[in-house]
Every structure is written in C-alpha cells, then in structure tokens.
Amino acid sequence: MSKIIRIGTRDSQLAMWQAKTVQSQLEHLGHKTVLVPIKSTGDLVLDKPLYELGVTGIFTKTLDIAMLKGIIDIAVHSLKDVPTVLPKGIIQAAVLKRGNINDTLVFKDNEEFLSAKDAVIATGSLRRRAQWLNRYPTHTIVGLRGNVNSRLEKLENNDDWDAAIFAGAGLGRLNLTPENSINLSWMIPAPAQGAIMITALESAEETREILKEINHEETEICTSIEREFLNRLEGGCTAPIGAICYINKEEEINFKGILLSTDGTKKIEVVKVVPLGSHHNVAEFCADYIIGKGGKILIDELTQGDKITNIYSTKQLTNDQKAMFHDDVVAESNDDIKINSNRLSKSIIRNEIENVIITSQNTVESLLTNFSAVELQFKNIYCVGRKTKRMVEKRIGKVKHYEQYAKDLANHMVEFMDGAEVTYFCSNLRLDTIPDILSENNIKVNEVEAYETKLDAKKVEGDLDGVMFYSPSTVQSFLQQNEAKGIAFCIGETTATEAKKYFKEVRVAKVPLVESVVELVNEFYK
User: Fold this and answer.
1) Greatest extent of the chain over all pairs of C-alpha atoms, in Å
2) Rounded Cα gap, residues 252 and 254, in angstroms
3) Do the beta carbons of residue 191 and residue 230 sit within 8 Å?
4) How far apart are CA 384 and CA 364, in angstroms?
5) In which band, very low, low, confident or very high, does the pLDDT at 328 lie, cut at 50, 70 and 90?
6) Which site from 126, 311, 404, 450 is most exposed, i.e. has the minimal number of CB atoms within 10 Å?
C-alpha cells in the first residue's frame, strides 16, 4: 500500500501504547503509518462510573465518526470497550494476540482486609463491583474513573480505601503493575478483556487485506464467542456480565459466562466445553441457558433503571412469570397477604366427615400441617379451583366435585349434595358466598378456620396503570396502604366482585391462573 495508513486512537497513555503496537506490526510488514490521537467522551467525563453515563461505545464513538468522515483509515480499540454491534460501514478488521485477561487487585498495605468484615474497594466497573459484592457482601464499593496513572494516584491518596481493581493487561502494558497486587483469577473478566481490535471501513478492501496479516485467529475466535454471548444477553459496558473463552491443548473451546444483579446478591453462571470446529453455537447455547435461569429478569431490572413501576402484583411473581410481561411493563410484586396455619384439634377429624369444602391450596397445607393424609377421613370433598382440586387429589383423596368459582360450587351442592351438613375449612377472612347460599337452602355449615390470612401490603410510590389481584384478601390488603387507582386486573370473578367496590375499571382473566392475569396486563399494553 503506497499511501500512509492513518491510525486513529484515543490519546490516553494506554490507548497510545496499543496504537503504537499496531503501528509497529504494520511498519514491520513494510507499511507507512501515522498516529492520529482523538479525545473521546469517555476520557472527558471522569466524575461518573461508566454505567451511570448510560452510553455504549463511549470510548469508540468519536473514532467511528472520524473514520466515517475520512479523517482516519483505521481505529485501534480495547475490544472490551467496543459495542457488540458496529456502526454501518465499519467492520472489525483484525484482533491482535490477547494479553493478560485477568482483573488485578492493587492494595495499599497487605491483604488482611480480604478477611475483614469492613473494607473499601474502588472500581468504576459494574461487573467488577457486582462480582466483588457477591464474594464480599459486607464490603463497600466506591467509584473510580480516569486513566491508569490517575487511578493509581487516587488509590494512594484516599486513606480510607483498601484497594482498587484494574485490568491486568493495562497495568502490564504500561509497566505499572505494583508489587502489592494480585490477579483475581476467580473474577470473570469482561468479554474480550485483554484484546486489541482494529476497525476499518467495510469498503476499504486494500486496508482490510493488510490488516488480515496481523490478525490472531485464536484470539479472534475466542473473543467473538464472548462478544456474541454479551450481545445475546443485550448487555454492554452497563451490564454486570463477564465471559472468558480459551482453546486448550486438546483443541477444545472452553467457555465460562456470568451474569449478576447490580448488587451482587444474584449470580447465574454457565460453563461449556466443545471441540474446536463445533463451537459456532456456544454463545447462543450459553446465553439461552443464562436467560432460562432468570437472566432476562436481571437484564430487565437493569435496563429499566430509574423507570417508574407501572404495574403492581399483590402476589410475589416467579422469574418465569416476570419474563412474560410486555416490554413496556415495569412490574413490582409482593406477597400482600401472609398465611399462617392454625393449630387444629384432633376432635375435628375424630369421625369420618361426610361433606367437606376446601377452597384453596392454603387449606390443604394447613390440614396436612396438623394431620396426616390417613387421618383425614373425608367422604365427599368439594373444591374451588382446578389447582386446589389437583392438590387435594394428589395429597388427600379424590374430589367429588369442583367448580372454578365459589358461587357455582355452592349452587351445585344445593342441588346435588347428599345430606344437609357440611364442614367448611376456610380462612379467617373468607367471603360469605358459600355459607350464605348453603344456609339459605337449609344446609348447615360447620366452619373451621384452618389458617389465618394476615394483610401485609406495602406502600407503592407513584401512580400505577394497574394492580394485579388474586383473591378478595389481596384487594383488601392493598387498599390498607394504597388508593384505588388504575385498572384492577383480577384472577377471577370473586376477586373482581371485591375490586369493583373500589376500582372504576376491573378486568377479569379468562382462566384463574397467575399467567392469565399477566396476559390480561399485556393486552392493555398492546
């Protein structure tokens, strides 16, 4: 190539080292080059952690613009800083052989603080922060930004700091690795950490051919898997995601990925080993595994950030249920009622009971807390709800008849039940529907409070689009702490009847399942 290759780079000391390394390799092959330093936003804004800036590609965007404007021919980056999707017209043209992949802990005096309850660790990385807190939950993390030299200086000047975390590659390349430092081999690095990448215009075929000469294939394979994993999890530098991939002597791809909650309390890991050549689906498999284990919930919580809750569930939702929500839903959930089984006397079940009513799974749990299944001599069992029926038949005995709603069950019993007496195992907050209908039809109802329902709602800040209710008790509990605003999304007609006393708009799920209430919410946002 006869023309001079203009190498774009950030102007920090480390970025210049990386650019000069690329320059050296290109000139060794006989190509003429010149360095073009350009200052980026990431270098200018040093008072906030990267994840608070809310920008991906904060260190690369300025160089991308310079390339598209024709100011530079190629750009040199730390690959871990590059967004997984490059701007249109720009491609990854080469990756140099990878350096140290590890994070390095630099400490002041000694390592005794690692076993102490209280310690202060400095880092501007959300990934490092989350992993450290996962391992040392009582420690305090403080923000740290700037170039390598300034961060080392800040560590030295802050008397209450015990240590700071750096990329080992950066310290080593600048020959700044202190004696009082250790590699954190347990900490999963950022995807592509330790690798230097060169971008070029897709249309610059001659430049791309030259860069192929300095590309390191093994590093390219491994970092591509790590970055695809990151991309599939929809994360960038603002997500606590780690990934490392290497090829062993047996020519096997070894991959390990991790996703954490921002506070480190939740961690999902995946490990995969496959033969080289059969590795093309590794990133997809591992990302799907993480997502299936609750990763989507963690990512959604992070990407929602400061968005205000618009849907509140009066029952704690599972990860799978949360994953079903429409993208516009910012949901919060809590068990607004707490259940405590009552202590029941043996005299209640001393003789066979001809007719029994069980309206909830809580009743089943309470009965089996007090008695064994063998002791429960129930001739005819009547249930409300399909799930309750299944649970009764699995753990107590055959169900005579069930209906989805209390009113329908009571009417059925009036017409078809043998005898004129029934034992109703219920809660202290049961509705009057069943006792009223049966009593009006001369059926004696013996009520036994099998469990106590305690109203335990929380105060929800801000205006809600809607509230998800699963029983009349959840309606009552929610309204002890909150006003009736928005739509009441109800699991069934009995719950809806209670909600209609307070809410202007009430919608009822087609099937009395939590998942059906979620679908009801989603219909509102479509």
Assistant:
1) 104
2) 6
3) yes
4) 12
5) confident
6) 404
The CA-atom distances, in angstroms, between 387 and each of 337, 399, 469, 520 are 19, 12, 17, 20
Residue 11 CA from chain centroid, whole number? 36
| pLDDT in the model for residue 34 | 96
81 catalytically annotated: yes
Count the neighbouring beta carbons within 10 Å of the beta carbon of residue 229. 28
Report the alpha-carbon distance of residue 359 to residue 392 in Å, rounded.
10
Count of other CB atoms within 10 angstroms of residue 113: 19
What are the strands of the beta sheet with 140-142, ordered from one edge? 140-142, 120-122, 163-167, 103-107, 181-184
Two tokens at 434? 């069943």
238 to each of 56, 127, 306, how far by Cα in Å?
7, 8, 14
The answer on pLDDT for 201 being more than 80 is yes
Q: Region 511-517: what's the mean pLDDT?
A: 89
CA distance 187 to 56: 22
Tokens of 236: 């960038």
Q: Which of 236, 151, 144, 133 is nearest to 190 (CA)?
A: 236
- Domains defined for the chain, CATH in brackets: 1-96+192-215 (3.40.190.10), 103-183 (3.40.190.10), 217-304 (3.30.160.40), 307-336+456-525 (3.40.50.10090), 339-455 (3.40.50.10090)
Both structure tokens of 332: 């919060």
43, 64, 73, 81: the catalytic one is 81
Each residue of 274-286: pLDDT tens digit? 999 989 999 999 9
Question: What confidence score (pLDDT) does residue 40 get?
Answer: 60
DSSP 347: G
Specify whether the CB–CB gap between 514 and 470 falls below 8 A: yes
- Report pTM: 0.59
Q: What is the 3-state secondary structure (H, E, C) of 91-130?
A: EEEEECCCCCCCEEEEECCCCHHHHCCCCEEECCCHHHHH
Q: Return phi, psi of residue 244, to 5°.
A: -140, 135
Each residue's pLDDT tens digit, 24-60: 999 999 999 999 998 765 444 445 443 443 334 455 7
Nearest to 188 by CA among 247, 241, 121, 140: 241
